[in-house]
Amino acid sequence: MPGPSSDKTERELRDLPDFKILGLLHGASNYTFLARVGPHGADGLRAVYKPARGESPLWDFDAGSLYRREVAAYELSKVLGWPRIPPTVVRRKAPHGVGAVQLFIEADGRHFLGESSRRAPTWLRVALFDVITNNADRKSGHCLFDAEDHVWVIDHGLTFHVDPKLRTVIWDFAGRPLPEDVCGDVERALVEAERGALRKSLEKLISDAELRALTRRLRAVLGPDWRFPEPSSAWSIPWPPV
Predict the structure, then answer these.
(1) What pLDDT is attached to residue 116?
(2) Is residue 206 in some structural domain?
(3) Looking at the domain assignment, is residue 12 inside a domain?
(4) What mean pLDDT do residues 2-18 have?
(5) Rounded CA gap, 166 and 54, in Å?
(6) Which tens digit of pLDDT belongs to each residue from 221-237?
(7) Do 186 and 218 form a contact (C-beta atoms < 8 A)?
(8) What is the torsion angle, in degrees rounded to the nearest 10, for the CA atoms of residue 7, residue 13, residue 18 and residue 20?
(9) What is the number of alpha carbons within 13 Å of residue 8 lying toward its C-beta?
């Protein structure tokens, strides 16, 4: 989980001067590039670069805001301690302008729908994170497995909206209460989002209204009667699901 090595990776992704586009990643809704940051060859970091100017227009999310939401999700995950999101930063000096730069994860092809019966604690935390961030696009393919069998979650551009937007393939925990072993994590995130360092970070990434909505969701999750939501319609599941 996030620690000193993550801090070093963040600095390198954000500040190292050498930044080379390796190619366009096909299949994404927005322009997304594979890049190398730092020295040429094996010593450089491979990264995913999502420039603001490459974002497709959406009727319900402000233009040029998706890359900041990617970073906001990562910052929140660091405070919660889960889920595992690759280090993600705002980088201003890049070939196509300001955007999100995220450490590239070498994945093995597995994803949630093939692994949903295993790792219940991991999937519960991903599902809870999506409720807290109001994730409008949790596809199965956004859950990656690396060579060491770690689960990483990516693609958080459609998060933090003020209106209910939850769309996900992970409905396995619908109707269940908040487990006691995550209450402390959520309480810590609420304090940080209201008056801590997390708030200062998020103020640069999402709007005041979105930050207030986040704190409301965190409080709601901690309520005694809260339960994981149920899907309300077919719209509650993204298409395609992978």
Answers:
(1) 86
(2) yes
(3) yes
(4) 88
(5) 24
(6) 999 999 999 999 999 99
(7) yes
(8) 150
(9) 5
Give Cα separations from 191 to 95, 156, 185, 198, 225 (angstroms).
38, 22, 10, 9, 21
Contact residues for 157 (Cβ-Cβ < 8 A; gap 6+): 30, 50, 55, 61, 66, 67, 69, 70, 137
Say yes or no to pLDDT of 179 above 90. Answer: yes
How many structural domains does the chain have? 1
- Compute the distance between CA of residue 158 and CA of residue 60 in angstroms, rounded to an integer: 10
Does an H or E element contain 150, and which? none
What amino acid occupies position 167?
A: R
Write the CB contacts of 20 (distance below 8 Å, at least 6 apart in sequence). 35, 36, 40, 44
User: Is residue 241 a part of any domain in this protein?
Assistant: no
Q: Given the structure tokens 């961030």, which residue do they identify?
A: 133
Helix, strand or coil, per DSSP, at residue 194: helix
Distance CA 49, CA 88 (A): 10
Report d(CA 77, CA 89) in Å as an integer.
13
Q: With pLDDT > 70 as the criterion, what percentage of the chain qualifies?
A: 97
Q: Which residues of 213-223 are buried (b: 16+ CB within 10 A; e: fewer)?
A: bbbebbeebee
Assigned domain for 242 exists? no
3-state secondary structure of 80: helix
pLDDT for residue 41 = 63
Token pair recorded at residue 142: 């956004």
36: containing domain: 4-236
Asked whether the predicted pLDDT for residue 4 surpasses 70, the reply is: no
Structure tokens at 129: 């994170």
